[in-house]
Amino acid sequence: MFKKYYLTEWSFFKKKLRFIFLILLLLLILLSFSTYSYFIKYPERAKSTLFDYVKTFRKAGLYGENSFKVFVKLFLNNLTFSLGATLLGFIPFLFLPVIAIMHLSAQVGLVISLNELFVKQNQLKFLTFLSPHGVFEIPAIIYAAAIGVYLSIQISRKVIPWTKHNSLPFPTLCKQASRSFVLIVVPLLLIAAFVETFITPSQL
After folding, report:
1. Range of 156's domain?
2. What's the chain's Rg over C-alpha atoms?
């Protein structure tokens, strides 16, 4: 049964989401490099931004001794963020899910710049250290944003009179988005939270 659902999702991804996903991935890379360059030029701003992130994470309870609680909070935090990226797609014309990519690229650029400025570890080794959970978390967020952009395109078509006939029924859009989110985004975020909580710290 699950095989059938995933085959359907794979077909949907190839036809509707693949191009959007690749564009968002390219945007993430470009914005991450831009953020990295900015913080390399202004190291004090990189340090202050890091402190702001740490304060936010502490308030959210993402640091603690109880690993299971940290795992749950990490998962819920990323789930909320990803769900927001998808739901923003119901607003036409503005393509607001791109905001999630901008936010993610700011984090990626910041982390890489901090390593070069202060940690001074070989970048390849540093990325290898981050990749165990990043390889699941980053695609999950991009996928969630891609769903949102797809929704934004379809909702925009429904609003414009001369493209309305090419738009899909609203219940169909909701079904597509829900299926994609549950089958792809949720499992990837679960794996990412597990790896970040129980595996990545052991590499320190």
Report:
1. 2-203
2. 18
Tokens of 85: 């990226």
Q: Across the chain, how many H-helices and E-strands are there? A: 8, 0
Q: DSSP assignment, residue 88?
A: G
Asked whether 95 and 152 are in contact (CB, 8 A), the reply is yes
Tokens representing residue 124 in the block: 């390849």
Rounded to whole angstroms, the Cα distance separating 107 from 49 reads 10
The pTM assigned to this predicted structure is 0.92
Residue 9, amino acid: E
Domains contained in the chain, number: 1
3-state secondary structure of 42: coil
User: What is the rounded CA–CA span in Å between residue 145 and residue 94?
Assistant: 13
Residue that the structure tokens 């929704």 belong to? 151
Residue 126 has which token pair? 């540093």
86-97 tens-digit pLDDT: 999 999 999 999
Handedness of CA 167, 178, 108, 121 (dihedral sign): negative
**60 contacts: CB under 8 Å, gap ≥ 6:** 73, 77
At 49-79, the pLDDT tens digits run 988 888 887 777 666 667 888 899 999 999 9
Which position has the token pair 């985004």? Answer: 185
